[in-house]
Amino acid sequence: MMLHGRVAEAAEIARVLATAAAGHGTALVIRGEAGIGKSALLDHVARSASHMRVLRAGCVESEAGMPYAALHLLLRPALDRIDGLPEPQAAALRAAFGLSGTVVPDQRLVGYAITTLLSRLATERPLVCLIDDAHGLDRESAGALALAARRLHTEAAAMVFAADDECPGFPATGLRELRLERLDGNAARELLARCPSELSAHTRERILDESDGNPMALLELAAALSPRQRFGHLPPEVIGLGALPVRGDAYAPFTSRIGRLPPSTRTLLGAVAADGRGELTVILHAAHSLGTSIDDLAVAERARLVVVADGRVGFRHPLIRPAAYHGVTITSRVVAHTALAQAYEAFGDEPASVWHRAAAATGPDERVAEHLEQLAECRPADHGRSVAAAAYQCAAELSSSMPNRGRRLAAAAVAASASGDLRRAAALADQALSMTGDDGVLARLAMIRAAAEAEAGLLRDAAWILLQGAAVVAEAAPDLAAAMLMTAARHAWACDYREALGLAATRVAVLRTSDTVRVCAAGIRGLAGLAGHDAARGMASLRRMILAAADGRPSLPIEVRLHVAEAALLVGDDGTARDLLTRLVATCRAQGRDDVLPHVLGLLAQAQLFLGLHQEARISGEQALEIARRTGIRQLPGQVHATLSRIAAVEGDEENSRDLAQRALSEGPTSIRQWAVGSRALLDLGLGRAEEAMERLSEDAPGWRTVVGPALLADTVEACARSGHRSAARVPLERLDEAATHSGTEWIRAVALRCHAMTSDDGAAGDLFAQAVFLHRQAPTRPFEQARTELAYGEWLRRSRRRTDARVYLRSALGIFDRIGAAPWTDRARAELRATGESRPQPRGEEVGGLATLTAQERMVTQLAATGLSNQEIAVRMSISPRTVGYHLYKAYPKLGITKRIELARLDLAASA
């Protein structure tokens, strides 16, 4: 079993075991709240101690009053060694375990006997004793074990105890302690991802929020959900009202503690649990309506169930809240929500009041449903698409008529889709389908269902759903129909579904014309042309599509603008793609479109990679991955990791490139294979392993009709040429020539000329290299490819004894390689320069100050902060929490050598933000 978020703790355990194995006895007490992972860490100790003898015991509640019961459990495998101890110690243990006598022996003598017994066992094989739930041990066992633990000095033995914070029953005086804190967000997400049930992003975020980093609470919350709840059906709790259901035995210890409180305190505690915000002034206002007071809150505080600080009330453990909420009757919960609704209304917080009135509703209530609908519609940017979806969904539940219910469910599906939660959106769309007859609504639902099918990898089904949905609105909403047909064509192109491509082309041609229809028609014709092996027509149509939307056309639907950017990458127009995608990122963030934003960022990372902007590409890629993890998008991470693996390959980071390529292969669709294999081959080329690169690429010869296709073809030709297999370069070179002919892109033509030069006789190579360099410098859009061409030309010139001429191109190549961080290529260019007689040192470029030491997220945050944005504004821009922004700044300041935010301005970071 894998530990999550416990790297430091695992390292400490390794030190404890190593110390014991080296003959230096040691003891450790692991402390933390209930469910924090103490037992899991003891399991990790047991697994890690495979070379040691392991004795393990814990508290048995029914035996907690029996003297030495826990000690007997621990030493049971070694009872046959008791007779070999000195007689007073042997007699003490026999009496402790009921083997002789009736008098309970002295605790100190038993402790000394344990020390002797463990010492003798450790001489045979290093020993580790694991004692779980030490706070619940019988008093005699706890005292004797603690005494023995303090006397392990020269023995090859370790004792590791686990004890709860809330139960100070274990006397650990003099023993070293290790405190387990709650998991951070990433570790909690990783743990939740291991749960067998598929969860919607909405449900996952609610579990993460309510469990607050406690592993047991997280797993219990996930396990107790019904199928509908796993798919996101959680109104009105989505905003934190009430508490998620948990299996009763999980919070039973807290239920018993709550049950001992006075009735009025239990009532107020239920209201605190119902609220979710914990604002003290609101709680006290509601308390008055409930017939309770601040004194009841003080009782709960003294019982160590709640903590009151900074004007807020919070629970000491995540499972106390469901115990308090579900431990009272439904009538009590309704009364609590009603009192809270009145309190929030008195404080002027109408949205919170509406939510509590919804939670208090016991049947259809059209008035509350209308208020929820208004809440979702009036300020979606403030509330977030996910909360808007919850408001629509809750409004649908409270609707008094079927048409209203269907309309609101459809709106919930659209909002959930825009938030990126396709699993939840699809479930809502399926519910709404039978409740609406509106063609426009049906088309929107078709888009959502198709997106869910595409996310599941069922591209043919997605294309067909969109074709059917577009037909419904072709007359009334031609722009919507065109956008749907464009997306259908994109899916059909990706899975080679030519019939669907042809149908999309036919249908878009008869739509009423507009900017959107013209752009989509050109794009569909382009993809259909490429699929039908009419590359000239296909590429020409794609270029017309790009030209028609090159200014970003804010009037075009977001999905269509994304397809235009994809087309720009496909024809090799990286600069236009970058400009389109940069504008689209801002649009998606402004509109809260988390369904599209990670895909936009993933494509932007590709464009930035091709333009040599590696650090920016990493930032875009990491942001895409973060949103994908949060929203549950499964198909995108493979593509992003493939992009990042190529960056690592260019830079010569072998281990990282290999790991990222492997992740891409395991996470992404089969189309990712070209990227992953190409990254490994490019790394081989950079490190001078041409033979290995050729073997990788020849296993699956790439085509050119993909974003990375021309570059991989060039790599294949170079690998063949440098390994002495020029004849093997013929087919990839023909394909590269086809790309150069039809793409209309200068850098592809230049790369094709370079490849011809590398496979030609020396008599023709010089002119070909010179033409290639000329084309690169006319349109310098792919600096890495330009530098490779200049390096190859410089190598050829040096071999032709034209050293002075060679230096010109080698210096240029070195400068580009150095700037983009292509370390192995930099080394090759520097070596070639030395071979020409170049004697001047050529140091590697370094970023100013500590900027190079920042992670991609830290760099992005500091750059945005340097522009004057607040933490809240940066959080919105990067789709992270304000707390995470503050954390990144806290980590970045020491690296940059500053202590205040105002000092960021003098570092000139804002220029590249």
From TrEMBL:
Name of the protein in question: AAA family ATPase
SMART domains given in the database record: HTH_LUXR
Gene3D superfamilies membership: Tetratricopeptide repeat domain, Winged helix-like DNA-binding domain superfamily/Winged helix DNA-binding domain
InterPro entries membership: AAA_16, P-loop_NTPase, Sig_transdc_resp-reg_C-effctor, TPR-like_helical_dom_sf, Tscrpt_reg_LuxR_C, WH-like_DNA-bd_sf
GO MF annotation list: adenylate cyclase activity; ATP binding; DNA binding
Domain HTH luxR-type: 847-912
GO cellular component: cytoplasm
Alphabetic keyword roster: ATP-binding, Nucleotide-binding
GO biological process, one term: regulation of DNA-templated transcription
Pfam families to which the protein is assigned, alphabetical: AAA_16, GerE
Taxonomic lineage of the native organism: Bacteria, Bacillati, Actinomycetota, Actinomycetes, Jiangellales
